[in-house]
Amino acid sequence: MSLQSQEIDEPDDDLFEHHRITADPGQSLLRIDKFLIDRLPNVTRTKIQNGICEGFVKVNDKVVKPNYKVHPHDVITISLPEPPRDTDIKPENIPLHIVFEDDHILVVNKEAGMVVHPAYQNWSGTLVNALTYHFQNLPNMPGNEGRPGLVHRIDKDTSGLLVIAKTEMAISSLAKQFFDHSIERTYNALVWGVPDPPQGRIEVNLGRSLKDRRVTTAFPKGDFGREAITNYQLLKDLRYVSLVECKLETGRTHQIRAHMKYLGHPIFNDEMYGGNEVVKGTVFTKYKQFVENCFKIIPRQALHAKTLGFVHPATQKFIQFDSPLPQDFVEVLEKWENYVKYN
Predict the structure, then answer these.
(1) Which of 46, 122, 129, 261 could be bridged to 266 by S-S, CB 3.0 to 4.6 A?
(2) Which of 155, 270, 322, 328 is catalytic?
(3) Topology of 184-342 in CATH?
(4) Helix, strand, or coil here: 68?
(5) For the structural domain made of 98-179, what CATH number should be given?
(6) Which residues partner with 186 through β-bridges?
(7) pLDDT tens-digit profile of 216-249?
(8) Confidence (pTM)
C-alpha cells in the first residue's frame, strides 16, 4: 500500500521537531511503530502508537496511519507541541495538601491553578517540582522520564485528588490498574443546562482536534480518536446550570470537558470548551451580569476530582478517598442556588 493512500487529512500545526530519522537504503518494509521502537529506546510502543494516531509522526512530511510500512530512504520526523528540553527537574519548596501517605503511596489534593508536571510554558511551580523537593528517589514509569511518581494527572485548572507512587512496586501496580481501567474516579462538575436523561453513559471516541491540538474533540463515528467512556449522574438541577457527577471508565486528555461539550452541556467557565459564555438563560443584562460575577468567583472550569479508589499496591486491599469541593466551587454553587430560589 502506498504512502499516499494512507495519508490522514490533517493540517500542519506549529510543532517542535524532536527527532529526525532517515531509513537506510536497504530498509525492509516494516510497520512504523516497530521501526520507531528500536530507535526510541525510552519510549513505549503504546506511546509511539498514540503519537502516530495524533499526528505527531510524519513520513516525508506526511502524517501516516499506524499500519504504514517504512520504505528505504523514508524520512521520519517526530514533532511535539512543546520544544525539546532536558528532563532535569528543579526541586521547589511548594506546600502539598497530603490526604494520605505511607511507605508506598501518597494521595494529594491538588489546588486549581497548579500544573501537574513540567511542560512547555510551565517549567516550574508544578506538582512534580514540589514532589521532587519533599520526596527523594520517586520512581518513573517506563517511557515517562521526568515525571517521578506520576501514574496519572489532572488538568491545571481542575482541582482534586491524585495518587503518587513512592516505590517501583507501587508505580507498576498503579499503572496496571489505570491500564485495566479498574481505578475508580469520580468528578463533580458544574455544567451549563440540565442533562436529559438525568443519567447516562457517554461512549464517544476522543482525539486531538484537527484544527487546534490543545483541544480534545469528540469523534462519534469512531473512525478517529481513542475509546473514551464517561458515566454521568445529575446531582442538582439549578435550571440554568446543574451539578453533575462524572465517573470515568477511561482517562483521555480533557475527557469530561470534551464529553460534556459533546452532550451540549459544557462545564461552567471552561474557556477552551465554550463554557465561558452564556450557554443557557435569558438575554437580560441583569442575568448576564450575574453570570459574569459567577465567572469571577470561579475563574476556571468548575471541575473537581472528588473521589479516588484503587487497590493498595502492598496490602492488596481496596481503599478510597474523598475530597470536599473547594471554596470557589462551593461559593458559585451557592450563588446559583440562591438565584434559582429567588428568580
Answers:
(1) 261
(2) 155
(3) Pseudouridine synthase (3.30.2350)
(4) coil
(5) 3.30.2350.10
(6) 247, 307
(7) 999 988 778 889 999 999 999 999 999 999 999 9
(8) 0.76
